[in-house]
Design goal:
411 residues, mainly alpha, Heme Oxygenase, Chain A, Ferritin, 2 domains, two-stranded parallel sheet, 13 helices, 2 strands, 68% helix, globular, binds fe (ii) ion
Length: 411
């Protein structure tokens, strides 16, 4: 059979890959930045999962690029055009969940899949088989996401015809912006010069759906004082932990969006943590419901949120939440496991052991990145490590203590 299309050459292949990588990273940042202001719990959980999946896509593409002679870091994520960046900026500012999901699952991800499919249609084989394998696995994962996205959009629109029309108009508008700038295959001789930052206002608390009851007074909040010894205590503790898991999906997602210049390996860790916490939320809610509980049965408090995400230094956030709160939480979970074992509550033991394994890893992320990024900056290290200590000396919600061993390790 005669081939009509010329096969793709090394340079063009690399140029295209760096654009796919740019879009995957942008999608991670959109989800990470949005997750705190999206009330729908199932969207939060899926974003946690997909942030990690998409950063891994960006990572495998990033590893292929130097093999295709694109060795300099600046070639590893290329914005396709100014128009493309302006379209993403417009998407970033959307406030409604339906509009956000419409952008992701009806325009950006389908656009990515069609660019990857086009790439495969004239890939040189077996010369470029490594790229082929990567693109096929990404296409498969993105198709699953698009299918999930379509279902959740339909569910959220429900029978609201006005919202349906708005969503359709928004999709059309975006599609024409995509087409006008040439999408991912814009003229590769022109490089984009436009860029924008994903900025955040001061945040009191993340968005929650109508089931949740918020206790504003952190000093009166004493859920952590319950014991895993009793059936009632278990419900209180699991419910409080469920809220913390969502907070952690949200705060790690936000680091990805707010600090695009952090080391790549650290960003992968943050995305991984977001996925872990999303799974924790799922399994804790499952156990809570098995034990007769439900979301919203007790009030929750966001003290730990406000003192984290409003800090300008991401390392202060890790020192507080990964190194202090998650370390504290690991101690509690160890105690719960011991109590559940005594009671013969094997179902709780099984899931808490997995959660503990992840939490210990999250504490390590904090220790590692604070160490690594302050090794030549003792002043910053001092300031970062002092933050949780000073904060917890002033304000002391019930059940949260400062752990002195933190400073011992890093001094
Ligand atoms: Fe967790
Ligand atoms: Fe964690």
């Amino acid at each position: 059979m005669e081939e009509s299309k010329e096969k793709m050459r090394v340079k063009e292949g690399a140029t295209r890959l760096s654009k796919y990588r740019y879009l995957e990273i942008q999608i991670v940042e959109l989800m990470g930045g949005w997750v705190e202001s999206i009330p729908e719990a199932e969207v939060k959980v899926s974003f946690g999962r997909q942030m990690y999946q998409d950063i891994v896509h960006a990572d495998v593409i990033g590893k292929r690029l130097p093999e295709l002679k694109a060795r300099q870091e600046r070639y590893h994520a290329t914005a396709p055009s100014d128009g493309f960046v302006a379209m993403l900026e417009k998407i970033w500012h959307q406030k409604s969940t339906v509009h956000r999901l419409t952008a992701l699952y009806r325009v950006l991800k389908p656009g990515l899949v069609s660019a990857l499919t086009d790439h495969l249609s004239f890939i040189a084989l077996p010369e470029d088989e490594p790229t082929e394998r990567i693109l096929r696995s990404i296409i498969e994962a993105e198709r699953d996401d698009i299918e999930w996205g379509g279902k959740i959009i339909t569910k959220l629109i429900h029978n609201d015809t006005a919202l349906l029309r708005e969503s359709e108009a928004w999709e059309k508008e975006l599609q024409s912006l995509w087409d006008a700038c040439g999408g991912l295959n814009a003229d590769s001789n022109k490089t984009a010069t436009y860029s924008f930052k994903k900025k955040f206002d001061y945040s009191k608390q993340p968005a929650r759906d109508a089931r949740w009851i918020i206790a504003d007074d952190s000093t009166a909040y004493s859920e952590k004082n319950w014991s895993f010894d009793t059936a009632e205590g278990k419900l209180h503790l699991l419910h409080d932990l469920l809220n913390s898991e969502y907070i952690t999906v949200e705060r790690t997602g936000r680091i990805l969006a707010e600090f695009p210049d952090l080391p790549w390996a650290m960003r992968i860790d943050m995305a991984r943590q977001s996925w872990d916490e999303a799974r924790h939320a799922e399994i804790i809610q499952r156990r809570l419901e098995e034990l007769g509980g439900y979301v919203g049965m007790y009030p929750v408090n966001f003290w730990g949120w406000e003192v984290d995400v409003n800090r300008p230094d991401p390392l202060e956030r890790l020192a507080l939440s990964n190194m202090t709160f998650e370390r504290e939480s690991s101690k509690h979970v160890r105690d719960w496991i011991a109590k559940a074992k005594k009671q013969g509550d094997n179902a709780s033991v099984q899931l808490l052991e997995y959660i503990l394994a992840d939490e210990v890893t999250h504490v390590q992320y904090g220790l590692h990145w604070v160490d690594e990024l302050t090794k030549n900056d003792p002043d910053r290290r001092k300031k970062v490590l002092a933050y949780p200590k000073n904060l917890l000396a002033e304000e002391h919600p019930v059940g949260v203590r400062f752990d002195e061993t933190i400073n011992k390790r890093s001094d």
